[in-house]
Hints:
2 copies of one chain form a homodimer.
Chain A: E1 2-4, H1 6-19, H2 24-39, H3 50-58, E2 69-74, E3 77-86, H4 87-105, E4 107-116, H5 122-129, E5 134-139, E6 159-166, E7 169-177, H6 183-192, E8 201-202, E9 208-209, H7 212-216, E10 220-221, H8 226-243, H9 249-255, E11 264-272, H10 282-294, H11 304-316, E12 318-320, H12 322-335
Parallel strand pairs in A: 3-4
Antiparallel strand pairs in A: 1-12, 2-3, 4-11, 5-6, 5-11, 6-7, 8-9, 8-10
Helix pairs in contact in A: 1-2, 1-12, 2-4
Amino acid sequence: MTHLSLSDVHDVAYTCLTANGCDHENATAVADTVTLAERDGAAGHGLFRIPGYITALKSGKVDGHVRTTIEHVTPSMLRADGHGGFAPLALATARDPLVAATRTQGIAMAGLVRVHHFAALWVEIEALTSAGLVAFACTAYMPTVVPAGGTEPIYGTNPLAFGWPRGDQPPMVFDMATAAMARGEVMVAARDGHPVPEGVGLDKDGNPTTDAQAIVDGGQLLPFGGYKGSGIAMMVELLAAGVIGERFSFEAGDADNKDGGPPRGGEFLLAIDPSKMGGDDWLDHGEKFFARYLRIDGTRLPGTRRMSHRAANEANGVDVNDDLLAKISDLTTGAT
Amino acid sequence: MTHLSLSDVHDVAYTCLTANGCDHENATAVADTVTLAERDGAAGHGLFRIPGYITALKSGKVDGHVRTTIEHVTPSMLRADGHGGFAPLALATARDPLVAATRTQGIAMAGLVRVHHFAALWVEIEALTSAGLVAFACTAYMPTVVPAGGTEPIYGTNPLAFGWPRGDQPPMVFDMATAAMARGEVMVAARDGHPVPEGVGLDKDGNPTTDAQAIVDGGQLLPFGGYKGSGIAMMVELLAAGVIGERFSFEAGDADNKDGGPPRGGEFLLAIDPSKMGGDDWLDHGEKFFARYLRIDGTRLPGTRRMSHRAANEANGVDVNDDLLAKISDLTTGAT
């Protein structure tokens, strides 16, 4: 492992992205997102993703020079068209217009279309909670998750995230795959020879299994929580594709060039200003709920672990896998 | 069992409600909701609820003569104040203004405050899907569900519902408790001596159990889907109480008079016009998703069973428990 400061992480990502066809704005936005992931201990969304980003640039699936355009469909509804670029620049571009619309209208949504999303959702959630807004986001992906009762995939891992602002404290944010387990986690379990819990996946013949390798080898992931979680995964499809006119997971899978980089898809973002209806004491009211919640033995707020990684990694930097750094270095120098 | 037409069901409900302090408008709205539940085979939300509605009228917790007032907080945000009445009249009153706001703004929400909700959410979801809108609703209740990791309740059964319009076909609607199982279902299992699945509840000492009676006897319900479902239950609290300035489940529990009728609470309703961003072919696009989904062996759309009950019960009427009918009859004649 090599020890890097967060500034080093950003440089490694930025340099590799610009060497492979991203302009300054796009490289900065992607490197920012990668750095935030490393900062919060989410290595699976950090530098680990750089080879996939580069693959998508090299195959021409993603354009590293585009700008996002914002259309006000209504005063409460924005379309952020990424024109085939990576999602981070689209999210950064959509953020201020969405905040402004929400402050005026009390509630507003942004549909991100023609973007390639390859990161966690808490990044965009925190961008909204930091403005004092309640935030909800979801995105569909590639068909890798089987609906409850079935044996063939139609859902992506279809993450869904929600955030509540807490004033000077870190916001309450959860960001969950509606898959029982993220594919990356199953791959790690397979690599380490660990089983996964019941209900996580099926083997290649459609039988339930706790063998992580059997899920990786042509098997399928299941939604969390059985039929109920399967319904939530369907809601994600309908919001992140149906409502905003982008591709369902199955359509993204059919259309993708299978280069291993992120497919084209959409994202649904919703923001609400809690001061509009929640009363002047909305912040204290929320805190009363959290206090009652935390008084219960054994509970912790979602995101707590991420926040403790954040504090440590901001102070100390992070350790990054040497093979990964060597690979990113090759991608950087090989491109020049 | 006594066989009743749906018109008879409505009469039984309406007569009992008016005999116990509901005016025509409130009795009609509640009887409509009760009748829709019987029609769709959801007996637990049908006439079975009448004694609870009457209890709340008799104790003075609920006022059967109020009218709902609608305030346009912003063009996209409505407050529907039920002034301490039952939820059905508030929902009926809020429906057209919410549809109008959504048609104009593309997305709109209604916060129902000072209402007493004692029914299923698919009723209000279908009222919006029938106008061609995508709909989302959730409500908190009384603290009966323990957060993941804890042993004391803070969540209500906190149902969440979502609907997608399908043109001439019945809409896709799911309506799920975020509790692993609705309390009523656990009570039925206990009555019938059946166990419940693992993960449904804890006994009175906080230990996991599959003994339904042990959950009923001072035990607690768990959220569906472990930590992820627990996060969704928290989101319901924050939307249906925090955002709209109503009581969290724990506050509703603290404030309730414990008469057995529905506590005061709030409901969060969201509607989106899919024609605004989904493209001219948004309906066909959704149908492509459902066709792909239904092509998978073993799947069915949420709500399918309810729709088959609906067809049968509209044609043939329903059978209602004699003890329940006798009880409602006593409540009706005893009040006059």
